[in-house]
Every structure is written in structure tokens, then in C-alpha cells.
Amino acid sequence: MMYETILYNVSDCICTITLNRPEKLNAWTRQMHLDLKDAMQTAGADRNVRVIILTGAGRGFCAGADMGSLQAIGSGTAASAQVERRTAAGRDLPGGSTFADFHMTYSYFPAIPKFIIAAINGPAAGLGFVVSLYADLRFAAESAVFTTSFAQRGLIAEHGVSWLLPRLVGLPAALDLLCSARKFRAQEALSLGLVSRVIPDDKLMAETRAYARLMADTVSPRSVAVMKRQLWEAQFQTLAEATVQANHEMELSFETADFKEGVAHFLEKRAARFTGA
Q: Which fold is adopted by the domain 219-267?
């Protein structure tokens, strides 16, 4: 599948999406937004895909919004927003969240019914930082550097990051990172809980792919889709509401082929053969 600003590859049930403007540290453009959303929806609807890895080409993950685009906005010469592409893969996806909160411009990752891992291979700044937060898990290269950067551009906490970041690192740390716009490295990101692993640069993709391979081979894709939806939607629910939803989902799971396979492969002491059904 060909895109202008990203690379799209599916191998062994793992979809790798690579932001591909390496000469600009993968700085974000409107076309990249369109390409990435289409690719995520396509992977989400592909029954052969069980895990999605998002990374950047070259030495950066995403350096934030392309400065030419920001300059155009500041001068009042920016073109009017394009209409986003609509594809067959863009319709409601089974297992993804239907909450309106997760169908906004940048908050749509929770609506993708596949587990998304951000492999942060270098600088993640501004909008690139925000995009990585919407992934379900983040692994960082040792050389990765992070910054919110908004305050240094005269901007504000964009695209829901004021809701998302405190849930990951706590309110005081979120205030620090947003209001100072300071740079911080991978080890601090790990200590804050922003990333789950820090990996040597030359092993980042191999270890990320090994984790994705574990998920693709050993767990039910249906279970992952439902649990991902439960966890994201629980951010808006009371304990009682989450429990009612879980009880309903449990009853549904008892009727699935994956539940029967989950019991069978354990009792038969063999590798699982989940289908997602």
C-alpha cells in the first residue's frame, strides 16, 4: 500500500506504520495526518493484522508540526482544511470504542480495535509527542528526546493532551512538562511512567516487534480489542458502569470460538490458534 508521507507494511500479523519524512525529522503535515489515519483504519479493519507498530524513519519519531505550516498559519495564508478521505476501512470498526471522544481529529487511536505500540526512535515533540500518547503502549530508544514544546510557540495544550498526559504521569508532572516545555530524555520518561521500556537504539525495533509477536501468537485478538475498548472507556465510567459493561462482555465472550480455543489449547498443552471469532 502506497502513501505520500508514511510507509505501510504487514508481516506475520504485525502492521508497521512508519512516518516517512526523515529529512524533516518526520515533521507533521496535513498529508501525514490523512495518510496515518487512513493507514490506521485500514490496519484496524484487516483481519490479518493483530498488532500495529508506529515509528519514524531516520533519526526521529516526529519533530512536531512542520514549521512551514505553522508559519503559514501565523501569517494568515494557510489553505483551508481539506476534507478527510473516507474509505471502506473508515466505517465503524468491530471492537473499537464508539465514544465520540475517541473519534475526534487526533484522539482516534482508541477507536482502532488493534493494539498500538509507539516505537519512539528519536525526538518526539509537540504534535509528535501527543500522537505517541494515544498509542496503547510506548517503547523508547535510549536516544529519544521528548518535549511538549507548545508554550515555546505561543500555543496551548493541544489535541486533548491536557486530559491524557495527567492520566499517564500525574497532574504535577503534566504541569511541569507542559508549562516549561523543557526537553527530557528517555530515562526520565520511563521514571514518569510515560514509556514502558527504554531500549538500546539498535535493538528498539527488534524488541518492539518481539513484544508484538508475543501478542500476535499467544493472545486472542478479540480479547485484546474488547479489553482495549474497556480500558479506554473506563476513563469516563464509574466503577459500577465498568462492572456492568464487563459482566455483559463476559457473557458474550463465553459464546466465542476464541474462548473455546483458549480452554482447549491450555488443556491440550499446545500453541494457541486464535482466530478473533
A: Lyase 2-enoyl-coa Hydratase; Chain  A, domain 2 (1.10.12)
